[in-house]
Amino acid sequence: MPILYMPLMHIFVPRLPKASMEEKLRYLSSWVDSHLNDSEHILKKPVLFSEVGYLQHVDGNSTVDRDILLRVVYDKIYDSARKLQAGGGALIWQLMVEGTHMYHDDFSLVARDHPSTYKLITEQSCRLQMLYKNDRDPDWQCPIQP
């Protein structure tokens, strides 16, 4: 497809309200695999998962669940990128900063308020940066060891 530069995918797994966590993980894993495969073999383009989100619940499990699901997405993208395949990256929906609460939705998170999620984001950034690190950026160092 010469006109398509990069396919963008959106992932909002909690839209499966009655599914168990195991079912959500299976669905997500299969969904990411199929989009990576299609991008690699059919479109022959890198794919960016441009909106990865997890609904914030009041039950207290949302951070743990979000981190588990985000780890699945990140690991699959990293594995694909490491093999020089279609995995390009993932962006959190919606990553906010302090003082922007008026713009939040049910998927929003402030990284500082969710240290485990922030650590996952940082680790993924470091892993991908290390894959593509070159001599043009000799002073760059990952703030944490992945």
UniProtKB/TrEMBL annotation:
Matches recorded under Gene3D superfamilies: Glycosidases
InterPro entries: GH, MAN-like
GO MF term (any one): mannan endo-1,4-beta-mannosidase activity
Domain of life from the UniProt record: Eukaryota
Cross-referenced SUPFAM superfamilies: (Trans)glycosidases
Protein name: Mannan endo-1,4-beta-mannosidase
Species annotation: Aegilops tauschii subsp. strangulata
